[in-house]
Amino acid sequence: MTEDSDQMNFSADVSRLLNIVANALYTNHDVFLRELISNSADACDRLRYEAIQKPELTADESTFRIHVYKDTDTRTLTVVDNGIGMGKTELIDNLGTIAKSGTAALMEKMKGEDDPLKLIGQFGVGFYACYMIADFVTVISRKAGSKSVWVWESDGATGFNVRKATKDEEAKLDGERGTAILMNIKDDGSDFLIDQKIKDTVETYSDHIDFKIFNNPPEDTEKGEGQPINKASAIWTRSKQDVTPEQYEEFYRHITHGMDEPLMTSHWRAEGKIEFNALLYVPTMRPWDLYDPSRKNAVRLYVRRVFISDSLDELMYPWLRFVRGVIDSEDLPLNISRESLQYNPIITKIRSSVTRRILNDLDKLSRDDKAAFATFWGQFGPAVKEGLYDAAEHREGIFKICRFYSTHDDGTKFTSLEEYVERMSEDQDEIYYLSGENLDTLKSSPQLEGFKSRGIEVLFFTDTIDDFWLQNATEYKGKAFKSVTRGDIEFDKKASDNEEDKEDLDDVHEDLLENIKQVLDKEVAYVRVSKRLTDSPVCLVAMEGGVDMHMERVLKIHQKYAGDSKPVFEVNVNHPLIKKLEAADPKSADFKDITKLLLDQARIIQGEPVKNPAEFARRMSTFLEKGF
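Below the sequence we write its predicted structure tokens.
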């Protein structure tokens, strides 16, 4: 080795990952060429943007292009672009350090996957797909504006070498910049030594690329030989009638590097005060890092077909971070900087317009294809509901597509808020809900008993975000959201004449309530007769105006909330156990033990731990023994 050459080893994880990539994609090895061409197109895009500020970078050649050609004598396939290129450090970082893209997380994910193919594009390892058809890969690159040409080479197993290029290797580049990838083809990839195979693959996967792709060496193109083998027109600028479903799907795979199909495609041109083209997709599969706080929006911004940025947070709301695609503006100046984009009012208007369109298209999907929408909501519903918290201007549109389980179908089917309101009785003024982590636990909650017996529907809120958006979005169409575990509940005010006056029940059972309160004085705020229980003896609810009990648990877990509000203890005076308790001696040990057991029972049902498990077990054993 010389000072101009560095031999480096792959880590154990990287070597294993390369083996997985090569073998997992083997059944569809054509995809490697799509990945390499996509990377070349990105390199051209990035240089086209950089050249706006630094025209000297493309002074030698302002036309961008890609070449894909074979050499049957040397059994090599070469992909060349005249894009931005890479220096030595970038070659090492981008091609030699896969761990930077989350190798460990990928390895763990792949362990439980029946089809690792679906994961390839999600971790930025598309380049390594070339090892499906090659046993040795050489990457030659010169960064635009640099004089040095560097070579990265590897067999994909033992490590990689980075060194200065020879004169012959420099000649492989297309002019004074860009990257050339030379692949020594294995026997299994021999079909890529046939021009027609190359052309068919490019037409299938990369026809939409906005740069001309040639099936010949760069020097032949300079001589005027060869014609582009793709249409070389930006797919988002075409009319919808001119784009086939297959082309939409392949463009989706080009920008996502994924193997799933888009669940929804939105392609339109906005005209008026602000003009732009948009081609956006909702994936079928949830990205592995959807709820990673560091995940950024990945919609690409172009200005008149010039790539500007693929990480502009202000272009899309955070709660639409799963949307992928392209937005191409006609109104932004070409020489705009990425920094000034963050504060540009046009970006804000584009974001608002795009959000309305996506919400409208999702609402249409919910009516036209319920199964597809159910898939979408199951994958992305919690993220969308974040918008209820921080995008008040779009709250109505978000509410339209929100779906919840409810007691109407015993928690087996999604329902919309509109459907809930339509089923409400005329005298119901509030939308009732019950929040918690587990749907099955919620469905058997004692707080629902009074609602079920009266035919009043209750929504189940099972996502953590539900407790937060409720702080800002407090009503829907004039109907306030009301937790069934907070405050008192006013059921049918037109009670029948033969029913005991519920307003006087606390007075009728005053002694019982007071005796229970003395036993539980340090544990509960107060004790009252329950209007919501029909079958269970007791339950816990939060005080009116207090923090909902599930919300308090969430805050303690995620926000280190230190509050410890006392709940209200409700008793069902019609339950046989409560009747026996009322008749018992309040000073007896049994009265105290039963009362504390009932409190622990209510806590367990509520999903809270008992405060003293040993005492709970002792009391339970005592009464089990007496029962026998």
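Confidence is low (pLDDT under 50) at residues 99-104, 115-124, 494-500.
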